[in-house]
Fold each of these.
Amino acid sequence: MTVQQHAAPDIIVIGAGLAGLACARDLCRSGERVALLEASDGVGGRMRTDHRDGFLLDRGFQVFNTSYPQVKRRLGLRSLRLRPFTPGFFAHTSTGTVGFVDPTRRPTAAAQLLSNRTLSPRDLVALAALTAWDTLLPARALRRGTDRSTSAELNRAGLSGTVVTEVLRPFLSGVFLEDRLETSARFFHLVWRSMIRGTLGLPAEGIGAVPAQLADGLPDGVLRLETPVARLTAAGVLLADGTELPATAVVVATDAVTAARLLPGLRIPPGRTVTTYYHAADATPMPEPTLVVDGTGFVLNTCVLSEVSPTYAPRGTSLISSSVLGEDGPDVAGKVLRRLSELYGTDTSGWQQLTSYTVAGALPAMPPPLPLSRSTRFAPGRYVCGDHRATGSVQGALASGTRAAREVLEDVARA
C-alpha cells in the first residue's frame, strides 16, 4: 500500500451525485480543502445523459421540478433552457383515455374534467380540496402531519376506488416506483405540492445538465473522476489502485448499496428498480409533450420526449421513452412495444429500440412513518448522505448533501 505524497485534503467526499456535489460545494465555500472522488467517468450518479447518434438518452426517465427549494437556491434555471411538460397527464383507463390537466394553468381543461365519466362530482370535489390543502398549507405543516400510506390517505380524502385505481395509482406508481401506494403520505403531499407549485420539464441538453452545472461551480482540482474507493481506513480512504488518501473527515455520498459496503453497519432502505426503453419513430405518435400512464399498470408511463424538447432527437425523428417496474426480462421489450401500440393507438412495428436502461435502486422505499431528513453523522469523522437518507427526489439528495456539509463544519468547529 502506497501513501499519496501531496497535501491531504481536509475532507473527502465519495460520490459526485447530487448529494456529493452539494456537500462538496458547501464545504469549499467554507474554506475547506476538499477532494470529491467519483468512481465513474462523469458526475451525476443516476442523473446522467448519454449522447448517441443525435439522441439524448437520460439514464432512466426523469423529470426536473423547478419548485424544489434546493433547486431554486443552487441552480441557474435559465441556463438549463428548460422545456416544460404539459401540466398534467393522460390516463389510459378501462373506459377510455382520461385527460387529467391542471385547470388553473389550462382553463380550457376544466370542461374536460367536468365531463369525464371516470371522475365523479364527488371525486372532483375531493381532489380539489386535497390540492388546495397541499397548495396553501405551509410545507412545515405537511411535514408534521400524521403519516400513513398514500393509499390510506387517498381513501381518507374521499376519493373513490375507481379514480384511485384507474387514474391516481397508475400515475403515482411512476412517481414512487411502486404500485401499491405504500409510500408515505407525508412524502406524497410534498410531491403533490411541488407539482402544483412548480413546472415539470427537461433541460435542453438532457437531465445530465443539472449535475454538470453543479460541478462547474467547484474549484479546480476538487473533482477527481475515475477514482474508485476500495474502503475507508482509520486515516481516510484506500483507493482501488492501492493509494491511501488521508483526511480528517470522510463523507460517503454514494448510492445506498455502496454506502452500506463502505460503512459496515449502516442501515439502508430497500431500493426500487425501474427499466426504461427508448424507441425512435419516423413520426410522432402524440404531437404534444404529455405523459401517458397505463391503467393496467404494465407500462408505468410513456412520453414522446422530442415533443418536450426537440433537442432530444435528430430532426425528423421522434424519441419515445417508456418505463416499467423491475428489471428487463425475456420478451418484456416486445410486450412493451405491443402495449405502446394500444396506448398511442398507432402501429409501432416500425419503431426502432435504441437502448434500455435498468436502474437498480432508482429510488429508496419510503414507507410510513417517514423521517424526511436524518442526521448524516455515522461515526466520528464519518458521514453519509444521499436521497436514501432523506426523500427519493432531487430535493432530498441536495438537502441531504447540504446537511452533511453543515454537520461536518459544526464538528470541525468543535474539534
Amino acid sequence: MKRFVFTFGFLMVLISSGILFFQWMGFTTESAGESSVIEVNQSYSIIHEEDKFQVAQTIHFPSIIPSGPLLIKWPEGAGNFTCKDKEDNKCLTKENGEFYVSSLNQDSQEITITYSLKQLTKAESVPLRNWYPVLSGVSTLNTDIQLTEKSLRNGKWIAGYPTSNHKKLDYIDYYFFSGRGEPSDLVWSKESWKESGSRSVKVLTEEGDPVGFDKLDTFESADGFVTVLITDKINPFKSPHLIVISEAYGDQLKRIKQSLLYQTLSSKDEDAWLKELAVSVLLNETPYSAKPAWAYKQLKNGLSPSQWDDLRQNIKNRSVDSDMFDEAVSRVTGFRCTFFAENVKGNEHPLLILKASKPMKVNRKPIQLSYISYKQKEYIQFPEAVEALGIEIKELEPGVYFTSVEGNTLRFYINEDYFIYNEENYGLLGKPVQTIGDTIYMDIHWYEKLFNAEVKNKENAIEILKGM
C-alpha cells in the first residue's frame, strides 16, 4: 500500500512538472514571438571613385538570422542590389515591387548586402546623407564604417562618431569610423578643420574656438555623441550624429541637445522618425523633418496643454514605437488613439482623430454611434445622432440637411461655418457640421444647444439625454 502511494505520488509530481515545463515553453515561445525588435551590429565598406559609391553592408545578428523575411527600403538612387549569407546563398527577393531579405540557412549569423549609389562630387563639399538601407524590425546597436577614397584626396571625410581614423596612402585615402546606433551621415570637405569639444560633443571650425561653445559641459550625455561643423561653406543640416551649422548661436545650438537626446531613445531603425518626434515633444520644439513635423502639429492641435504635459511624462526614458505613442495618447486623453498605427500602414497625412472607447447610450438605451475628440473638441456622428433623439432629418441635396425642432426650422451645410435657423443665416467661427476623416460629425456644443440634449461623458459610458 505504501509502495502504491509512493508510486502514485511520484507519477503526479512528474505529470505536474511536465505540465509546468510545457507551459513555460509556451510562454517563452510566445514571448519570443512578441519581441519583434532584432538588435544587430552593422559594418559598412564604402569604395568611392568619381561619382560612384560602392557599398557592402554586413549585418551581424545576435544568434541566427530570423526565419521571416525582412522588408528592406533602399536609399534613393541606389541600384545593383545583391544579398548573400556566409555560405554564399542568395538572400534577396522581390515581391509586388518591394525587396525582402531572408536566408535559407537559418544557422548563419550574418548577411552581406551590396549596392551602389551615384552622386556628383565636383564641388567644394560633398554631403552623403541617408545613404544606407533600412530593414524592418531591426534596431542597430553599433556601426563601423570603412571608407576607401580613390578620387577626393585633397580634403577629408567626416562622420558623427567618437572614433575616427584617417590614413593617407599612395593611391587611396582610408577612413574608419565607429559609434553607437544607426549609420552616421558623412560629409567631405576641402577645408582644414580645427577641433575642440567635450566628451559628448566634437566641434570642428575653420578658425579658432567657436563663439558660444565655451560651456560644452552643459551638453554632456551618458550615451550620446555628436559632431558639429561650424561653417558657411556647407549647406546646414541636422542628423542624429552629424550637424552642420553656420554659426554657434541661439536656435542652432538646440540641435546639439536634440541629437544627444535622440541617441538616448531606442527604436527599430524604421521608426527613426518616431524618435525625432519624441525628442521634439520632450523639448517642446517643432521637428525639422516633414513626417514627424506633421505628427507634432496634430498632437499640438489635438491635445490640451495639460494633456500635452502628461504626454511628455509618459514618453520619457522609453523604447519608442507606434504602439507606445498610441497608448500614451490614449492614456492622457481617455480616447482611443490609432494615429501612429495608421502612419505605419502608410497613410501619409492621417488626422489625429481620437475615438471614444466607451459604449454610447441615448435615453439610457445602447446605440452604435461614433463619438470623437478632434482638435480639442468633441463631436458626434451626424445625422444619426439627431435621428437617435427621435427627430426626423432629411438630406435635401448632397451636403444639405433639413429638420425642425419645436416649430423652428434648421438647415445645415456640411463643412460650412454657418447654419440657417428659421431662414436666418447664423455665421460662426467654426463649422457646426463637418466631415472629419470619412464621417460627418456635429460639434457637441451645437448638438446640445440646438436639439435640447445633454451629453454626459461618464466613467463607463457616454450618455445622451433628451431634454423635456
Amino acid sequence: MEKRLLGRSGLRVSRMALGTLSWGGDTDAEEAASQLVAFIDAGGTLVDTADIYCEGESERVLGSLLGDLVPREDVVVATKAVARRTDGPFGGGASRGALLTALDGSLKRLGTDHIDLWQLHAWDGCVPLAETLAALEYAVTSGKVRYVGVSNYSGWQLATAATTAAAAAPIVSTQMEYSLLERGVDREVVPAAEHHGIGLLPWAPLGRGVLTGKYRTGTPADSRGASSGMLAGYVEHHRTDRAARIVQAVATAADGLGTSPLAVALAWVRDRPGVVAPIVGARDTGQLTGSLTAEEITLPPAIRSALDDVSSIQVGYPERWPH
C-alpha cells in the first residue's frame, strides 16, 4: 500500500486507514484480529480508534493485539479524546484536566507507552483554546504523544487552532466526514487544511455504506440500515434522491472499470486534494478485503470529472470571491 506524509509532518502513513468503531462491540476480538492482520499484510499502517468507541473496548481490543499479533512498531496508533465518557469533572471535554485524564486512560487500555496520533474529537467552546492547546503541547513534550490532530472542526476552528498551536505540537491532521455524498468540507475545511499544511483523514468515505450500492433496491437484513436506533438513522441521512443519482453514477463507473462501486468511491475520495487516508471500517474481514481492492484502482480523468460533477455542491460567496 502506498504511503503518504500526514500534512507537513514527517509522519508517513498508509493511504488507507483501518477504522475500529465497532471493535469490542459488534466486532469481537477474534474478528478484529483477522481484520488487523489482513490490513497489515496489505501494507496498511494507520489504525484509528477513540476512547468512547464501545465505551473504551475498541482501544482495549486493539491494545491486546499489539505486540503479540503484530509488532507495535508496525502500527501507527491513532485515538481521540474530548467526548464525554463519565459524569465526573474530568469525564469529558477539552480542559487540561479532562484531556490528560483521557490520555492516561487511553494509554492504559491500549497497553502502550505512547500514542502516535492523538486527536481532539470535537471543538469545545466552553474551554479556552489556549488551555486545550497547552494540554496537547504537554502531551507531546512529555513523550506520551508523538503527533496531534483534530476532528469535526469547522474551517475557522481549524485555522484558529493551526495558527495558535505551539511549535512543539502543531496540528498535523483533521478527521472529517467526506465522500461523494458529503462534500461540505470542500467549502471551508479543505482550503484551510491545505493552507496550513494539515492532512485530511476522511471518515465515512463510503457515504455511511450507501455508496457501496447495497441500498439501491432495499435494505439488507444484515446492514446498519436495518438495525434499530441510532445506526438506522445514521444510514438514512444519505438515502436521498441526490444520493441515488450519485450511487447510480458510481455503479456505472464501476461497471466500466470492471471493479466494485466500493472501490470507485474509495478511490475518488482517496485522491482528492489534501486527503491523506480515508478511514474504512468493516463488519468482517471479507468486507475489509473489498475495501483494500481500491488500492489497485486509479480513476481515469474522465470518470473522476463525471463524479465531481454529479456530486458537486454549491460554493459561492464568500468561499469563491472575487467571482
